[in-house]
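For reproducibility, we list the full input for the adenosine-5'-diphosphate complex.
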Amino acid sequence: MPPIPADRTPTGQTYTQTIELTALYEIAQLIGSAHDLDSTLNAVLGVLRDILRMERATLFLLDDTGRRLVIKASCGLSHDEEKRGVYRPDEGITGRIFASRAPFVVPDIHREPLFLNKTRSRDIDKGKLSFLGVPVLIAGEPAGVLTVDRLFGLEIPFEEDIRFLTVVATLIAQFLVLSREIRKQEAHLREENRSLRAQLTPVFSQHNILGQSKVMREVFAAITKVAPSSATVLLQGESGTGKELVARAVHQASGRRDKPFLKVNCAALPENLLESELLGHEKGAFTNALARRKGRFELADRGTLFLDEIGELPLELQAKLLRVLQEQQFERLGGSETISVDVRIIAATNRSLEEAVSQGRFRADLFYRLNVVPIVLPPLRERAEDIPLLIDHFLGISNQQNRKQVRFSREVMDFLSTYRWPGNVREMQNLVERLVIMADRQQILLSDLPTFVAAEPEMVAPPMPAIVQAAGTAAPRMSLEEIERGEIEAALKRHGWVQARAARELGLTPRQMGYKIRKYDLSRPQFI
Ligand SMILES: Nc1ncnc2c1ncn2[C@@H]1O[C@H](COP(=O)(O)OP(=O)(O)O)[C@@H](O)[C@H]1O
Ligand SMILES: [Mg+2]
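The corresponding predicted structure, in tokenized form, follows.
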């Protein structure tokens, strides 16, 4: 029997092959008994390092916005380094591997000053370091990139490493598919759970006003209590918090429900028109008064008058309004007949009347007269527990109106639950409606949110340089020069063509930068 060569095992495999098989076996074990996505992925990368002497391993995945590659797991990187490693799907070598769906090798990264060492984790003084990366493909589409650094030289052909890493990337891809499926199932169960719970809890919806937060329950209680009386109500709250809705609810819950509910916006009309709108006028009272006209106070007799944006009422009219409120009597403009009415007043304001009083812009006596029963509507951001309820409500309405069945992903729900909603419920209603109308899929993702909502600024992808691949090789070669040119140009653009800054970002000396710019014949574009 011929002697077994020193680098072969009794089964005839090379030593490297045995190690690779061991690694694959361990990885398969890890995935088979996985409980948690993140820790499993980290453990898988740990195997690469421990068994294969790979210095550093990193798994990038496309994040929920679909606009960035972020580090999902790593081995050999600190937390800070992980956070720095964010790429656009067309940026750096990692981005190029993603975009081209092809493996890539940098035999000696120290000779590649361009190598985007974004995590700043590579110790340049160590020995020779090679970089290998392969795409993670799910159903043929890129989902991420697996990269490793290895310390030793060229004794192992890179093709073999690439082949091995491709197998690992395939295992990772399968694992990702599986855990996404599980996550979907869990979300489904959670959703079911939520709707069951919602059916069990009493319906916190009165007079079409939704809310289960403590403050909103207090609002419901106040409405119920105050409605039967004729007391004046002052509604305070930011725009879009539901003041008008509450005003209508008070009217509906009162004995006046069969009589008119009229609204006057005190900010919408100039002073003289507003006065005639409220009190009416006789024929000839002013130039355009061609006929007698009843005012809103008269028209709302025995009903409710809703005075919106009362804080904008001019001082002179404030005095007149006070008299009407106190005496329930007034004269039309240009008239002498005294008219008596029975009108309930509900006033609303989105700014502090107390402050207006202290600044002399609002009469204190009128304020006290209006503020008999104050109801404060808190902004939506202060009653976050109402947000999912309201989103569901508006989603249901918009779906029905548009004959669709649009759903929001969990990420979108989470995001919207913490969004600050400067325009409160009105903004939410508009956003949900818009998303439903624009949706061309059933599931709304974070990337569907308009940019003014998603804090994430829209990223503008620079044009991608052509990728040159040598046919037939196991590790297709993209042209490093192409990549380098694109990267340098992009960095210059990012820094307004200030060479020194672009050089610093790329880790080049100014001299190197100047050389590269000449080499690639780059110049700042001329604008007309
Ligand atoms: N708690 C709520 N439940 C359901 N819809 C609400 C609620 N609050 C506000 N809305 C809706 O939001 C929009 C704005 O409410 P609105 O009463 O006009 O606000 P405001 O008068 O305070 O600006 C309306 O379409 C209203 O129906
Ligand atoms: Mg309003």
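Residues 158-200 form the longest helix (43 residues). Residues 1-6, 456-478 have pLDDT under 50 and may be disordered. Both points were considered when choosing residues for closer inspection.
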